[in-house]
Amino acid sequence: WAHLDIAASSWNTNSDLTTVPQGPLGAGTRLLVHLAELIAAA
Predict the structure, then answer these.
(1) Would you say 6 and 28 are in contact if contact means Cβ atoms under 8 Å apart?
(2) What gap in Å lies between CA 7 and CA 4, rounded to an integer?
(3) Which residues, at least 6 apart from 26, have a Cβ–Cβ distance to it below 8 Å?
(4) Is the model more confident about 6 or about 38?
(5) Which of the two ends of the chain, N or C, has the fewest CB atoms closer than 10 A to its terminal CB?
Protein backbone atom coordinates (compact mmCIF):
# COMPACT_ATOMS: atom_id res chain seq x y z
CA TRP A 1 0.00 0.00 0.00
CA ALA A 2 1.29 3.48 -0.79
CA HIS A 3 -0.26 6.89 -0.30
CA LEU A 4 0.91 9.64 -2.66
CA ASP A 5 -0.27 13.03 -1.48
CA ILE A 6 -0.08 15.05 -4.70
CA ALA A 7 -3.17 17.22 -4.28
CA ALA A 8 -1.30 20.52 -3.97
CA SER A 9 0.62 20.06 -7.20
CA SER A 10 -1.82 18.19 -9.36
CA TRP A 11 -2.60 20.87 -11.96
CA ASN A 12 -0.42 23.41 -13.75
CA THR A 13 -2.12 26.34 -15.45
CA ASN A 14 0.40 29.19 -15.41
CA SER A 15 3.91 27.84 -15.95
CA ASP A 16 6.36 28.87 -18.65
CA LEU A 17 8.60 25.90 -17.83
CA THR A 18 9.08 23.54 -20.76
CA THR A 19 9.80 20.64 -18.40
CA VAL A 20 6.40 20.96 -16.73
CA PRO A 21 3.58 20.86 -19.28
CA GLN A 22 0.32 22.69 -18.70
CA GLY A 23 -2.54 20.57 -17.44
CA PRO A 24 -2.44 17.61 -15.06
CA LEU A 25 1.08 16.98 -13.81
CA GLY A 26 1.09 13.31 -12.89
CA ALA A 27 3.83 13.99 -10.31
CA GLY A 28 3.20 10.74 -8.47
CA THR A 29 3.16 8.77 -11.69
CA ARG A 30 6.46 10.25 -12.85
CA LEU A 31 7.98 9.46 -9.45
CA LEU A 32 6.91 5.81 -9.61
CA VAL A 33 8.11 5.42 -13.21
CA HIS A 34 11.49 6.89 -12.27
CA LEU A 35 11.74 4.54 -9.28
CA ALA A 36 10.87 1.54 -11.47
CA GLU A 37 13.54 2.57 -13.99
CA LEU A 38 16.15 2.86 -11.24
CA ILE A 39 15.25 -0.56 -9.84
CA ALA A 40 15.30 -2.13 -13.32
CA ALA A 41 18.74 -0.69 -14.03
CA ALA A 42 20.20 -2.02 -10.75
Answers:
(1) yes
(2) 9
(3) none
(4) 38
(5) N
Buried/exposed 2-41: b ≥16 CB within 10 Å, e otherwise: eeeeeeeeeeeeeeeeeeeeeeebeeeeeeeeeeeeeeee
Q: What is the pLDDT of residues 1-23, one digit of tens each?
A: 877 666 666 677 777 777 777 77
Look up residue 7 and give its DSSP letter: G
* Res 9: pLDDT: 64
Say if residues 27 and 7 touch (Cβ distance below 8 Å).
no
User: Which has more pLDDT, 38 or 23?
Assistant: 38
